[in-house]
Amino acid sequence: MKNLSLVLNIVLVVAVGVLYVLHFSKPSAEAAKGNSQKNDSIDYSVVYINSDSVLVNYDYFDKIQSELQEKGAKLEKEYQSRAEGLQREVNDFQRTVNSLTIGQAKALEEDLLKKQQNLRVYQENLSQQLMREEAKMNQELYKKVTSFLKDYSAENGIDLVVKFNQGSDVLYANEGMDITKEVIEGLNAAYAKELSAPKAKTDSTKAE
């Protein structure tokens, strides 16, 4: 899904201005006074990932994308079934309208218009339901990626992770700063571990 694949833009995009602040801003006089024994310049560890590659190769993303597509196909099928049923009623009305009284024809026409309005409302409800499902999956993806990056950065002494691919604010970065492969492997390893973990016992089981 297009919207789903954009979630890492929210997770990882960092303005170039932030990078400039980290690398080139001079400490204020007050800060310099409080840190007189430290070097005038501070080094930050900055790395980048290709978010498109992460999404394409992240097993969890593949799973939730498939689930969302399956859900969308199911809802579309339900809507299509109702729409076809209404269309059959419209066809029957058009075929028999000449044999009906004016009162009967008017009553049937009003009933069909009401059903058409209900079908439109039903379609909107299905769309909203799918959007809620997508938003829920986006949030879960956001949590997993940011949680992993936080732990990975702490373990490897990283201060900043940026997104570097077409459309990002970063125009150039040394390939040695690319941790895309490590992130993909780490995310998939964490997801595999999550899948293999025993399910939590229910309260009733614990009571026994």
UniProtKB/TrEMBL annotation:
GO terms for molecular function: unfolded protein binding. Residues 76-125 form a coiled coil. Pfam families: OmpH. Keywords: Coiled coil, Signal. SMART domains: OmpH. Gene3D superfamilies: Skp domain. One of its GO terms (biological process) is protein stabilization. InterPro entries: Chaperone_Skp, Skp_dom_sf. One of its GO terms (cellular component) is cytosol. It comes from the Bacteria. The keyword Iron-sulfur does not apply. PANTHER family: CHAPERONE PROTEIN SKP. Belongs to the Skp family. This is OmpH family outer membrane protein.
